[in-house]
Amino acid sequence: MKRNMYVLLPIITCLCFGCSRFMPLPTVSITEKKVAAIEELMDRFYDNEQFNGTILIAVKGKILYQNSTGYADRDLLILNTLDTKYRVASVTKQFTSMLVLKLVEEGKLDLKGKLTDYLPEYPKDKGSGITVHHLLTHRSGIVGEPRVPNLEQIEKLYHSPDQMVDLITSFELIAKPGIRYEYSNFGYYLLGLIIERVSGKSYGDLLQEKICASLRMENTMPDITGTEIAMRAKGYHYSYFAGPEDAPFLDMSFVYSYGHLLSTVHDLYLWDRALYGEKLLSNEMKELFFNKYGWLYQRVRVGNKGRTARANLIGASVNGFKANVLRIADDEIFITQLTNHKEHNGHILQGWGSVDIGSRILAILYDQPYDLPRKSAAYEIFRTLLDSGEDAAVKKYADLYENHQDRFWFKEEEFIILTRELHEAGMPDMALFYRRLSSN
User: Fold this and answer.
1) Is residue 40 part of a domain?
2) Is residue 38, in this structure, part of any structural domain at all?
3) Do 170 and 315 reside in the same domain of the chain?
4) Number of domains in the chain
5) Contact, 350 vs 51, CB < 8 A?
6) 344, 183, 323, 166: CA torsion to nearest 10
7) 272 and 320 assigned to the same domain
8) Whether residue 212 is found in the same domain as residue 313
């Protein structure tokens, strides 16, 4: 009996301390004070250099805040603007799912239809048990990209559809279709091929016909390598040693229907608004879109006291770009952040927008407590060590720790990451000093 009590105790504790997470949040109201608070919050992110890109915040169809910061092209000194087109990475999957469901609604595609029925060239020993449903839900058994050897080299090459099918089918299924979840970009690539095969049109043409034209989304389109596209941002990776650098090259043929779209914050806002009616899908099909196949629900943090809200959220990234799109249908809240700066190893300087920015904006809207963003002490000390030496780094550490914890955070994992960076850069003595300093 005593043993059972020890088993139950954590559950009871969780219920007691965790129930507030799911308590109803206050009704959203918009005031000038809240708009000013959002402006103050974003000014702090800009001052901290923790956001480079474009953001839009809307409630009940009214845009409360929109702004851009940083460069779309650092070499040409072109600034990001509200009309800058960014690669939106896996936000593309929303549109692929929508096109699939529209074809289902038109009777041209069956969710239970077999992959090999639509792509007969696909080897039957690997594809005959895979359905459109399996592809949409990442339960096809097709490998995820982390399992692909030499991915960083492969994705730099142009791939025709036949070459991509050959690549995908060169891997064995990781599980029988329908049994196991594994996030698979390749599955969504195949959905793009199915869409084109069934409709007889290119993905881009069908996207314009079925979605963009009717919604006046004039800046959403496939990004095609080698094609000049006006107002398109360049992507940058942030080196902890050298600052922003051009992101590694990616041939967009490789990411196709799982990550090849460009868009703007305003186009994504138009997309969000259209999802409230039946302009895109019937209510019955929208249930499938939001509950099974498209922009799924999850809990997102609201402020710093453990409260959460049920939202549709996508956090996506591709070489040099990140996209965060957050939607709370009950209160018609929409927040999108598109950025063309990404850290290649961790999130020390610029974290994921849904947590660092989105949760604070939601806190303002829902009258919940939040803190203003701080900067990384680990990185500030790291830069001081590189620029000015060990004595200066010791003084910087002491000053930040004793006098500036209101503006800087100290996170052990960040010191570990930056220690590893120093080792990998061939600076073992500096790495040892830095790690010892951070452990004091």
Assistant:
1) no
2) no
3) yes
4) 2
5) yes
6) 80
7) yes
8) yes
| Whole-number Å distance between alpha carbons of 408 and 371 | 12
Please report where in the chains the tokens 């060590």 appear, as a residue: 385
CA dihedral 216, 222, 224, 230 (to 10 degrees): 30
Asked if 53 contacts 340 with a C-beta cutoff of 8 angstroms, the reply is yes
Residue 35 lies in a domain: no
- Write out pLDDT tens, residues 320-339: 999 999 999 999 999 999 99
> Can you say whether the dihedral through the CA atoms of 237, 336, 414, 42 is positive or negative?
positive
Quickly list DSSP for 252-308.
Answer: HHHHHHHH-EEE-HHHHHHHHHHTTTTSSS-HHHHHHIIIIISS-EEEEEETTTTEE
Q: Are 276 and 263 in contact (CB under 8 A)?
A: no
HSE (side-chain half, CA atoms, 13 Å) at 191:
35
Q: Range of 397's domain?
A: 375-439
**pLDDT single digits (tens) 49-92:** 999 999 999 999 999 999 999 999 999 999 999 999 999 999 99
The count of other CB atoms within 10 Å of the CB of residue 427 is 17
Q: Are residues 317 and 419 in the same domain?
A: no
Do residue 215 and residue 316 come from a single domain? yes
CA distance 311 to 334: 10
